[in-house]
């Protein structure tokens, strides 16, 4: 009686918890079930075929077991029993598995990549993403923590890491690819639907692994070309107290801002930080308050981050720097 | 002609050595697949457009396994002692080893096809 009560008490939280977990799959922002790229669509299709196949086989097997248990002894002769085992136990599984293999293998072929395709180098760092666009015949463009790609064109991601193993995953675009120090892994993709999506590090890489994410913006090709041309230019030069403070606190030792003499390469490039959708690689929104908080105590937001805290910095100084950064569009 | 061949096969010895012909061929083909792809990709930098050597190697492996299986099928049907064939007599021993060889040949045949399919369908060095 007691155990039944415990069970019925547990049922509600279990059911609602499972329901919530299932509902979280409904977001179209970061979901392999809401593909916006050819590869993710192929993976989704393959998953559906495999799941349906597995369910059909499981039901058929259950029915066969039921028949085997229920039917009276002697329903089959020795020979027909052996034949049944050979057909259902050997030939049918071999044919089914071969069918699924031959069906799934062509979908694993990577996109052919031409020399004229856009290459994007992404380096995983604890706990952010160094991004370098290498358009064919053009100067590379440095960015961080956000990736924009043109719809309908093949893009080749060249993935590596600088410290530990990370993994690059944009669930709606393609499968996962590990980022390994000292090695470049290639991931060709093709987006099919414009929109704003999300990617996430999927190999545990340290304290702030869960805070290592990035926005992915899939754009129409013409808009992408315009954006890339604009991204190559520095943000409008702004002079003010914030800019001077940025220099005097030594922020440029780690961060670069195009068009200024701040050229550090240890941390993310901040040339167009205000045009991104988040700071700290998906940790906080781009607001003045969030910038102030991140500047003064980044490790409170991202434990294990290499950016030092600035407890000695006054709120006023932090606000001025945040205002300056907020203008870097 | 066929009957003569069958009676000749029936008189062949079936041993533990003949039993492992098919799985050994499967293992060698498995190694061959990796070596062929690695050497070809390393030497030319791209996957072969017509992997003739690989086709021939796979065909050869399947042929050896098929022959081993064919011999085993005939041997497992050699008339002898009455069923069940589980006594320690010469003919039951032959039937048992032949039947095992036949099953292993079937498994190895599928194994070789499953190994060859990715090589021939993926066509990629990455």
UniProtKB/TrEMBL annotation, chain B:
Q: Identify the keywords attached in UniProt to this record, alphabetized.
A: Membrane, Transmembrane, Transmembrane helix
Which species is this UniProt entry from? Novosphingobium fluoreni
Q: What is this protein called?
A: Transmembrane protein
Highest taxon of the lineage: Bacteria
Is the Transmembrane helix keyword given for this protein?
A: yes
Which residue spans traverse the membrane? 12-32, 52-75, 96-121
